[in-house]
Amino acid sequence: MIRPATLLIVLLAVLLSLTLFTVKYQVQDMEDQLLGLNRSITDDRQAIHVLKAEWSYLNEPSRLKILAERYLGMTAIDSRQVGTARELLPPIHQDNAETVTPLTASVVIQEQPR
């Protein structure tokens, strides 16, 4: 006859063996997932590196200048195109020179009805 203690130890050993078996395969699955994620991270880092290089090329000032001239008709600013702030102020007439000064003159912008 089998003693109850021996039976309990055998059942405990079988239960622990099954538990160890399932945990082992769960750990292997997680390691495979980790390996896949690390590969994905490496691929993404390489893609980011390529995109940064492409962005640097696309934003090169000499290239943008050529494209702006070709497609937008934009050219470099001529010195005659640059004005002063005094040119923006309305002309001051002698009869009201005492009441309006360049510092108090302002432009009123009226909103257009929609």
Report on the structure:
Helices cover 59% and strands 0% of the residues. With 114 residues, the protein is an all-alpha fold.
Essential attributes:
single chain; 2 helices; mainly alpha; 114 residues
Fraction of residues in H or I helices: 55-70%
Determine the strand fraction and express it as a percent band.
under 5%
Structural class: mainly alpha
Largest sheet descriptor: none
Shape: rod-shaped
Our count of helices gives 2
- pLDDT < 50 runs, ≥5 residues: none
The H/E string reads HH
What is this entry, summarized?
This protein has 114 residues and is an all-alpha fold. 59% of the residues lie in helices and 0% in strands.
Write the layout of secondary structure elements.
Elements: H1 4-58, H2 61-72
